[in-house]
Design a protein that fits this description.
Radius of gyration: 20 Å
Structural class: alpha/beta
Helix content: 25-40%
Order of helices and strands: HHEHEEEHEEEHEHHEHHEHEEEHEH
Number of helices: 12
Length: about 375
Amino acid sequence: MSISIAALAWSLALFGQGGPGGHALRVVPPEMDVSATIRAIQSDGLPVELLVIDVCRSGQALFPPPEGSPFVARSGFESGAQLREWIDEAHRAGLRVYAGMNLLRWWGPESTDPNPVEARSDLVELDTNLTCYGVEEGVFASPWSRAVQDALRGLLTKLATDYPDLDGLYVEWRLSMTSCLGYSDAARAAAIRALSIDPVDVRLFGIEPDDSPPLKAWFEWRLSSFREILGEIREAFRTASGGKPMLSRATCGAGAWKLRYRAISAQDWLEWRFHSVVDDLVLEIDLTRGVNTPINEFRAGYRLYETIQPPGHPYLLVPGELQGKRVSLPEAAERMDKWPLPPLPLFVDPSQADQLESALALLAVLRDNER
């Protein structure tokens, strides 16, 4: 493992004020050994109080999905017993446990799993070229597809029912950040029903929304319908779980973006939080946007977050992946360490198995800084 000294020398002033033990770690089984990770957290005294276990990706769940679902149980997890054992182990170690899932990106470019929707094109969201193959981040399911909505509500209801000891849910709910999706048959039909507008007839480029009433209406509808669909999915989990909380990952700077850019990825997190569609957020700094833009956008977004009442308790993401591309956890931490950031607990997010060691090392630095 190669970790720079600067990345490990996080200052207590910037990264240690989230409160001892107040940080979160996400693990992605089966590639990451959940039991060994729990033992390491406990034996090394790592300042983790929330463990997020990724329970479904590439259409494969760590528990048996509902009958007729497009999701399937991952090989070796057909009974669902292993997930229950991990939840129990984590609780015995004094950790809270959330299930985690990217609700719409059903396949990523670094995945070694088969594409789960290759034979289900009706579930896939399309870009302006009416294809999904040019989307850098991977393949996204269509949020406007009734079949996708039913599948997500069914899966999360089954999760909450079968695992009542889960403490909550962590999700990622957004479309592509680099391609404009929303041209599938399902998305077009939904827009026509709501607005009498077919997205393929709307000029997207070379014009501002204020100069195009159809474009502005479509953008605003994308945000509102996206929020409503998430609310319905959230309500299904809330009802089945007895009111357990839901966290969502969100690009913090998106809260201050212009309508066009918010509508493309549909990250209207300020409205989600304001309307209690989500209980709180894992705030991401978009490190892909140049030298100074990431921190400037984060500050603008965080000022908006601070206007929400009652005050929330967000996490700050240390990413292992951004927009479908692998990110070095130590390099992300080193870059973030140079900025004056709010004293938030961290959400350490290794996306690949070989990043877990770096994640644990970074948490060990946090432990030492907080002593």
